[in-house]
Amino acid sequence: MTDQAILDACGRGEISPQIALSRLLLAGGEVDAGHLARVAASRPGSDRLAALARLAARHSDRLPELARLARAGLWPGGEDFPAATAILFDRLATEAPEAAVAFYSLGDPDELAAATAELVRVLRAWSPGTAGRILDFGCGFGRVALALADGAASILGLDLSAGMIAEARRRAAGRDAVRFVQGDGHRLPAADGAIDLVVAADSLPYLVSAGTVAPFLAEAARVLAPGGDLVVFNWSYRGDPGLDAEEAQTLAAAFGFAVLRAGERPFTIWDASGFQLRRAA
Known about the structure:
This protein has about 280 residues and is an alpha/beta fold.
């Protein structure tokens, strides 16, 4: 997507200012807050572009570092995809944890907190499992797990990155109901039927790219109690919503899930699509 296409999408309200600014950064160029202010001024009445210009101005001191991160690459490469993923996020856990788990947060804890609060509101509206036993797959430094902790019986966060798990444990100090462990999706660290809700927020695309999404769905089906939910935000990054929905339907049928939602866009900040699969009762 070109810079102009990004600006047009933001102006039409198709993407939020946060997503627009992150896409401009990921496109590889330097983002000039002054230029965005001039673009907004040239389109009077475009509240979204004005908001984008204000957002860029507010974070102007962060933009060069965010551009550097984008140029350095935020997607794992190499033949051993899981190992490359762990190495990437180990580095980012130290360099830029907020930007690593949600680049559209622009590395700002307050921006990330607002997006996380919206995510939690959606989860609680969708699934009664938020009051039960939760497994947060691809938990990063625990932002979703910690935001859900007050209303949940227990939360287990799982991530491939040792660095992210260390940061999650640091941030969760004193929260006895929240536990973080390092691991992948091949064997989830829970007994059969011991979980009421599995959350995968922006983590399934890595399994899709690695070709390991089916084993994860099998494991989610194993650990979920009857009637429990698997909620996925972003099935993949391949840009084919129809294929994502088709794959979700196929795997759901194979592993005993009913598909309640496939590809809904429930957020005002994040542009993720949501999927809800419910384990047969």
